[in-house]
Structure formats: structure tokens, C-alpha cells
Amino acid sequence: MIILNMKASFGKLNGELTLKEGMNLLCLPNEAGKSTWSAFLLAMLYGIDTKEKPSEANDRLPVKERYKPWDGRPMEGRIELLHEGRRITIERSTKGRVPMGQFAAYDTDTGTPITELTAENCGKLLCGVEKSVFERTAFIRQLGLDVTEDAALENRMNALVTTGEEGMSAGQIEAVLRDMKNKLSRPSTGQINRIQTQIMQTRRELEDLHQLQEESLQLRVQSEQAQAELERLTQMTERIERAQMAKKQMAVQEMALRNQMQENLCRRLQEQCAMLPKEETLHALKTRLEVADSRYQTAQMEEAFSPEAPSRPQPPTCFYGMDARQALRKQVEDAARYAELKKRPAPNKLPTILCAILVLLGVAVCFVSLYIGLVAAAGALVALIACAVIYSRQKSKKDEAERQAERILTRYGVEDMDESKQLAQAHAQQMHSYELACENHKREMNERKACVAAAKQQLGTILNEVRAFAPSCDDARQAMEAIRAAVQLHTQNFAEQRTLELGRAQLASMQSIVGRQSDLQIDEEALQLDEAKLQYEKNAARERLERCRIKLSEQQGRISATADASVLHARIEQLNTQLEQARQTEEILTIATEALREADETLRSRFSPQITAETGRILSELTQGKYAQVQLKADMELSVREKDAVLTRPAAAMSCGTADQMYLALRLAMVRRLLNAAVPIVLDDALVNFDDARTREAIRVLTEEAKKRQIILFTCKEVPDVY
Predict the structure, then answer these.
(1) 165-172: long-range contacts at Cβ-Cβ below 8 A with a sequence spacing of 24 or more?
(2) N or C: which end of the chain has fewer CB within 10 A?
(3) What are the helix (H) ranges across 529-564?
(4) Angle between helix 170-185 and 151-158 (nearest 10)
């Protein structure tokens, strides 16, 4: 089979890929769709498992979700291929909600449908192998180079050493034998266990039958004893009921007497309440009294705690004993006197100075004319003395005026008379405020006294109302006690009336229950008995009797439902025979399983050398002769031995590149030995872990293989041109 063309709407793909016969080397960058083209080819050949669920194996992403077209188109595709000289076109498209659910295969040249190809068998008919075999041989992924166990792959290997007929593999047959053996010997659900359980159950049934018969006899005896006890307790209960009825009749008579006494009490209370105001009026009067008393107490307290009279302000010394008007008038007078004193003129020095000059001139004239000079000087001297005396007197008066003005300022304690005016005005303002405060205090005291008088008058009015039914009340406390006593009397009257009504109703009820019987006698001995205990014992006896009857009925039913003892013995014998046969079958299956394992080991010893030899040759080419000997275990685990080395090493102990080369060699060997030349090989970045030298050798090996079959190699690394 040669794939010629692929067209896909699959995952990120929405394009076409053309291939050729032989080697197809597709070197594409990351995210170019290499893995997607590989998955598309596998899906077109073998379809998509739409029932696949998210799991660890698929990274929680099933194929139908992983490769859903990115552009929102339906998942679909077409492949053109050449098979046995015939050009065939295969188409798969979405059907409803099933991706790739619609399948079609037809001749490319004529369009004739190929009916032998279906959605289910397409891959197997074209490739000649099942999907699991194809994935483990010719379909080589980067992350899936290792080979796992598979029943179909085992069948293919078995065909190497048999006639080639495909039947069940040794593993499948062993699984069938193991399943048959498990059905016989499984501890919980095996046939042997079931037979043993049936034998034990039948023996228990036989033992239970004997036990049931013995218990049935015991239950009959217990039932008769319980019946006798129940009858005795019933008689005792009836006796107690008669005694209690007599006691109830006496209680009815006592209750009638108490009701008569209660009626007398209620009559007296009604007479007393008739002399009192109604209860609503009393409550209102009580409220008014409380309000009036509270108001009176408050008024008295406010009067008692009235503020003190304002204190007279302390006046300055200059205004001591003066009121506001007197202080202002005194300041005006002192200010006028001060101004008058300040206005007195200062003494004139000029005459004295002139006289002194004249004296000097007279002295000077003496040098010219002694007589004239002396006369002039004497006259000037007399004038000088007179002027000096006059100046001295004026100076004394001026100083006295200054001292008087200073005493005025000193008396006010200021430096200027304007300040004295401010001092007088301040004193006048203080006195005015004091007089206003005195007037306010007097008015407030009068108002509080008026409030006390009004509250006292209101309280007296209410007390007069209370004295109408309680004349001995003298104050609010006694009035409150009288009102409270009156309300309590009304309350007592109502309560006693209610008690009387309840007593009458209770008496009527008891009379209806007790009836008119009067011939019953009180049985003191019966009354001493514990009725609750007797009732409990009676109920217990009744329950015991009922349980005995139910158990007896059940026992009879079980005895009737249980087979006869002879039948049970026969069943035990039959089950023992079946148990012996099952154990013999188990032994036969054990022998068959051991024989199958020996045969499987013999077959593996015949086909394993063929696969390992071919794998060794390919691995030697890939590693340039470094590794040539390979061992393949039953679980498809590979081990390799280096040339001239003693020990073998598993693939897990090798580098990633060497392990990939080992499994690539194994896959190529299985392709050559198990698959026909029509099956193409698909490699998805399988050489990504190879170095340059081994990549070159791998390309050479694949090129040689491409001469026999088509090879499609997707890679993202540069590959040397060796083909």
C-alpha cells in the first residue's frame, strides 16, 4: 500500500499533503502539524474511538477532543492510496455529533464503491494487522517508541513458528483458564465456595428445624403462663378502678362543699367592691396621684435647692459705698476738678530775668557813674526781689495744684482721668448686673413658691377624691396604699369569681364522669396498691403473651416452610457430590494452565530468536557496531550488551537516544518479520534524540527499508542527505 495524497480538516490542519513511493522525508518546524498528520493517518485507517474517556494514558484529553478542528469546521478528511495496483479513495466525515462517523471507500478512477472496506475493517484489510499491532510496529511516535504487551501482537509472533493461522494467544487462553479456575475457587463467589456455603446452610437449616420444634414447645408453655398472669392482673385492676370511683364520688361531694364556700366568699367581695370605684377609675386615680405627688415632691425639691441670692460685687476703693449713679457723678466731679487744676498757668520767669539784667546793667553803669549806677542797681535789685517773691508765690500755688491733681489720680489708681471714667463705667455695669440678678432671683423664688402651692393644691384635690372611699388618708403615701388595697380587692374578687367558675365547671365535669352511683364503698386496701405498677405489669404480661403468640406463629410458619429432615439429608449428599466434582475440575484446570505455560515458553524460545536476531542486526547498523546483541523478554522489555562486554543492560539504564535506537530497531525488526510489504512505516520525530552520526545511520537504514515499502518520516531537525 502506497499513500499518495492526504487532505485533512483535523486539529490545526486544514490542507493537503502529497506523498510518493519509497522514502518521504518531511522536515517541518515545530507546530507545523507533524504529529497531527500522523494521528490523522491513523484515524483515517482505523477510525476514532468516540467512547474514549479522559485518563492518564491520553493526558486527560481524548482524540476526539484533542484533534477537534481549530477553525470550527467539522472533522473530516480524505486519503488517496494505491493498494494492489488499484487507486482507492477513503473519506471520513462527521456524522451528526460523531466525529469521523461517516465512512466511504471507492475506486478513485471510476468512483465505484468498494463494499468490502468498512469503517471498522478498513485499516486491518489495507495493512493486514489490527490497530494495536500497527501502533506497536509501523506507527512510531517520538514519545511512544517502546513496545508494550498486546494479545494481537502476540498472535502475530506466534504465527512465525506455527502454520500462520491466527487463533487465541497463549496469554488469552491462560486468561480464559484463569477465569474458569477463578469461577471455581474464588473465595467469595467461586463455585466451590458456593457449594460449601450451601452445604453449611443446609446443615444449619437441619439444626434450625430441631431448634424450632423445641422452641415451639417452650413458647406454648410461656403463652399459657402469660395468659394466666394477665387475667389475675386484670381482676386487680378492676378492683382498683372501683375503689377509685368511690373515692372520686367523695371528692365530688367535697368539691361541691368547697364551691359553696367559694360562693359565700365571692358574695362578700362583691359587696365590698360595690362601695369602691371601678377598677379602671382606681388605676386612673392612682396614675393621677403618682403624677401629682411626683410634681409636688419635685416642686418642693426645686424650692429647697433654689440657687442662692447673687452676691454684691466688690467695688473699687474710690467708689466704696456708692451705687452706679453716685460713682458716675463722683467721677465727673473729680474729672472737672482735675481739669481745673491742670488748667492753672505756670509762674512767669521773664520779669525776674529782666530785673536781674537791670541789676547787671546798674553794676556796669557804676564803672561810668558810680552814683547813677548804684541807684539804678539798687532800684533794679528791689524790683528783682519783688519779682522773685511774686514768682515764688505763684510757683507754690502751681505745685499745690499739681499735687492735688496727682492725689485725684492716686485715689482712682490710674495715670489719666480717661481711665477713671472707664473704671467708673465698669463699676456702674457691675452694679447694674447685680441689680438685674437680684430681680431675677426674686422672681424665680416667687415662681417656685407658686409651683409648690399649685402642686399642693392639686394633690389635695386628689386626696379628697381618695378620702371619699378611704377617709383615714392624710397624705399621698396613705392614699396610694388605699388605692392599691382597693385595686387588690377588685383583683381578688375577679380571681375568686374565676376560681368559682372553674370549680363549677370541674364539678360538672366530675359529676358527668362519676355519675349518680352512691352505693360504692371505698376499698382502702385496693387504694394502697400501685396502679401504675399493676398497669405496667399488665401491659408487660399482654406484650409477653402477644410476643409468645407471634413467635409461636412464626415458628409454626418456619417449621411449615422448612423442608423435611430426610429431604435436607438428601440435599447434603447431593451437594457433597457436586463439591467433589468441582475440586476435580479445579485440579484439571491447574494442570492445563501449567501445560499451557510450558507450551508458551517453548513457542517463545522459537520466535524470540528471530526477532532478537533481526533487532540486533538493525541496532548494530544504527550504533555502528557498538551494540549487536539484544535480549527480548516476554513483557517486550529490551536489554542490550555492548560488544565484548559481559553484562547486559536494560533499556531503562541507557541514555534516551540509545533507548530510542533499541526500540526503533525492535519495531523495524517486527515490521520486517510480522508485516507484509504493503504496510507503510510512519515515523513522528522518532529521531529527535539521535546524534548526528546515528541519525545518519538511521536514515541509511530507513532508506534501505524504503526500497521495500513506503516510509513517511516527519522530523523537525536537519537530516543529512544520505539517500
Answers:
(1) 170/596, 170/597, 170/599, 170/600, 170/603, 171/600
(2) C
(3) 531-561
(4) 130
Confirm if 685 and 695 have CB atoms less than 8 A apart: no
Task: Please return the burial class of 114, using the count of CB atoms within 10 Å of its CB with bins 0-12, 13-18 and 19+.
Answer: middle
Q: Return d(Cα 464, Cα 462) in angstroms, integer.
A: 5
pLDDT digits (tens, 9 = 90+) for 138-186: 999 877 566 665 555 555 555 443 333 444 555 566 677 777 777 777 7
Provide DSSP, 494-508: HHHHHHHHHHHHHHH
Distance CA 137, CA 147 (A): 8
How many percent of the chain have pLDDT more than 70? 87
C-alpha span between 454 and 451 (Å, rounded): 5
Partner residues linked to 24 by β-bridges: 712
Q: In 275-319, where does DSSP find H-type helix?
A: 279-304
Asked whether the predicted pLDDT for residue 6 surpasses 80, the reply is yes
Domain boundaries defined on the chain: 1-128+679-723, 168-276+490-562, 317-452
Q: How far is CA 210 from CA 214, 553, 558, in A?
A: 6, 16, 11
pTM of model > 0.70: no
Nearest Cα neighbor of 698 from 653, 664, 656, 675 is 664
Q: What is the pLDDT of residues 323-347, one digit of tens each?
A: 767 777 777 777 777 777 777 676 6
Domain 1-128+679-723 bears CATH identifier 3.40.50.1820 = no
In degrees and rounded to multiples of 5, residue 95 shows phi and psi of -120, 105
Residue 109 has pLDDT above 70, yes or no: yes
Question: Is 154 in contact with 129 (CB distance < 8 Å)?
Answer: no
The residues, any chain, with a CB within 8 Å of residue 693's CB and separated by 6 or more, are 624
- Grid coordinates in use for 685? 520525530
